[in-house]
Amino acid sequence: MEKITPRLPSGMRDFLPEELLRRQFVIERVARVFEAFGYEPLQTPVLELEETLLGKYGADAEKLIFHAQHPNGKEKLALRYDLTVPLARAFALHESKLSLPFRRYQIAPVWRAERPQRGRYREFYQCDVDCIGVEGMEADAEVISVAVMALQRLGFSDFAVKLNNRKLLTGIGLYVGLEGPPLADLYRSIDKLDKIGVDGVREELLKSGIAAEPVDRIMALVGSGAELECGYAAARARLAHFRQILSDVPLALEGLAELERVFNYLEASQVPEAMIAFDPSMVRGLGYYTGPIFEAVLLSADPEERVGSLAGGGRYDDLIGLFRKTSLPTVGVSLGIERLIVLMEKRGMYPEPLQRTVVQVLVSVFNEALRPAALRLASQLRLAGLSVEVFAGSAKLGKQLAYADKRGIPLVALLGEDELAAGVVKFKRLRDQHETVCPSAESAQQAQALLCIPQN
């Protein structure tokens, strides 16, 4: 058989054990925050019917969907693009088994045919929480609070959540007399403010056919968000300013009232005001948003830390209605788990010591005659809930200790002829070279104590 050069598809990655354990640390810590707010886990399949995904994201996004087809398959399938549309489909399919409001979280891979580059992959994990069935803005404030606490629990403090409302953005367009395609183009142009600046957006709007006077009025409103100003008082002052200017646009007033309620609930929830800001230029690209939208960004001057948003989401009250007779109010947020992991690696934010292997104890084997005793000890330790490896093969004790150290195994059980004859086990903790001897019957309790594992 011809040898094959090992390669990965473009934009895909392997995760070796140590790296995967760090990722699991992040995912588990975030999941605990989700559950602290009452969100429950949900799993949807990797493949969805094409009809489930198409027509939900916008033309530009749907060009990135991976289509999957078995040669003998009759169904047209695609890899999931995100976790939101599958949620809408799953709820509509199983709603008789679920209660409203339905709070769910899902942490799973998605696929997009992006152009691979630093920090951008074709397969990556999304980390979502969504609340279905709550019309009031308390749900929006809740998912924002979830995102803020999750980022804090991971160790981030220099970030802010920017809030806006799709109704306000549409209202601004109506205020200057836009409708139809020019109104849709307004979203796309404003969304580029961070990349091309105020002058760049102004030029793009002019090129799209909007007259200079309406463009000036638009930029006087959304361009003011170029400098982020955090705090509840600042947000309310700017909302009042917009309310005065847009007093004749009912849709804009509705969006402003919703934002004010969100800010009130966030303040009552004790979300730090240094982490909250109103940003009228923030758009969010996906087409299904209908109300408040939000995005967490890092407040860092380091160009290497400009990785995009840390989290983002919003209200999408119409999406579930595509899968059932009537729609339901829904709001959610997605954490950029891949970007967070990159930043945590760069900043050295993982607690030390962080496990590099799942193995807690290596049972050494002095010689083959003692292997049965080593196997019995390993079985005893596993019954106590420990993760145990028995050294395979033959090697001198020094090499076995070096193997454990390289793997990051914290504890080695030494069971030689002298220990076996005396009915004891010697343990060596590698991080500080501490050694202790205990009766064989107490080996599990001693190992747990050396590993600082609480005993039942």
From TrEMBL:
Catalysed reactions, semicolon-separated: tRNA(His) + L-histidine + ATP = L-histidyl-tRNA(His) + AMP + diphosphate + H(+)
Chain positions recorded as L-histidine binding sites: D82, L83, T84, R112, Q126, D130, R284, Y288, Y289
Enzyme class per UniProt: ligase
Domain of life: Bacteria
Alphabetic keyword roster: Aminoacyl-tRNA synthetase, ATP-binding, Cytoplasm, Ligase, Nucleotide-binding, Protein biosynthesis
MF terms (GO), sorted A to Z: ATP binding; histidine-tRNA ligase activity
GO BP of this protein: histidyl-tRNA aminoacylation
Primary localization: cytoplasm
Domain Aminoacyl-transfer RNA synthetases class-II family profile per the UniProt entry, residue ranges: 1-372
Description of how the protein assembles with itself and partners: Homodimer.
Protein's name according to its UniProt entry: Histidine--tRNA ligase
Organismal lineage: Bacteria, Bacillati, Chloroflexota, Candidatus Thermofontia, Candidatus Thermofonsia Clade 1
